[in-house]
User: What shape does this take?
Amino acid sequence: MIALTIYLLIGAGLFLFLLVMARRKNTPVEGCGEEFVQARRALRTLQLGLLPANLVERIFDRGDFEYVTAESSREICKLFLAERKRISLIWVGRVRGEIRNLMHFHLGYSRFQSKLSLRTELRLALDFVLLLFACRTLRLWLYLRGPYSAPAMVGIAAGAAARVCRISEQSLEFLNPVAGDSFQNDSTPGGAAI
Amino acid sequence: MAATQDLRRRTLAHIPQPLERLIFLSSTRDYNTGLYRHEGLALRFSEEASCEALADCHRDAFNELVAASLRDLVHQLKRYADNSKASLSEFIGAWRELEPYRVAIPAGADSLSSELLFSNLKIALAILETRLMAPWVGKPSASPRPSLVR
Assistant: This one.
């Protein structure tokens, strides 16, 4: 009876696996423009909204905390720490969300368009996994210990996210408008000038 | 861009603090259309160029303010309150209740940056209020404060 149950469970697992694979193969390449646009949006949000060095520095800057501690009452210190904790949790949550969007795009769609080498793809996969883990750990850490408890981890997460963004940019490069010169450079010698 | 340079040179040069610039520039925006209007600038250049220049400078002021330290923000807020016609207590009361800075951010600003600025302004107002209630807080005293403990 136990053996039968184990075989049934393995069978159900294999069936689910095949179902997932079959669904992935049916992903229409032509109809996935929306996913490209979403990935592009996630990339822009990360690069311009969440990862600029001055913003990360401002959120986790100890200088503000020292100023409040030196200048204000205990109530304001508590208010400040609660506010910064809230902001830092929003930051790490949004970074994680946008990284997940990019990962979803890479898993499902980028292989049809991008010219990433196998080594880069493996590196990217490892970066995604580590980054999502780092974000989750950082979120827990910030929640339990406050916004100034893990400056090194914040730096590592921001650096890894920036690296993932750089690689993702290559996959989404074809969405950028093509400059006029590139047409000229691509034309064959003796061909018609554009 | 000529209109932006003109705006910076003629108008914004007289408004040195990013907080004041942010409030001023947001006041030139029509809330119904989201378009900026400045009669003088539009006459010299065009409606579109003037709108674009005001929007650019508004974004710059916002980014400067987001990057400002809390100490700097408290200083800017104090100066802004001093330049207004209201007393400091009235000013703090109105800003805490109405939160006018929430409508002063440029369109398309990232929500996290906006949240950080709102949060910093909230703390800056609390710091100013404490100073108003107990002026000795935060200032190095020449002589030790009288203690009740003997």
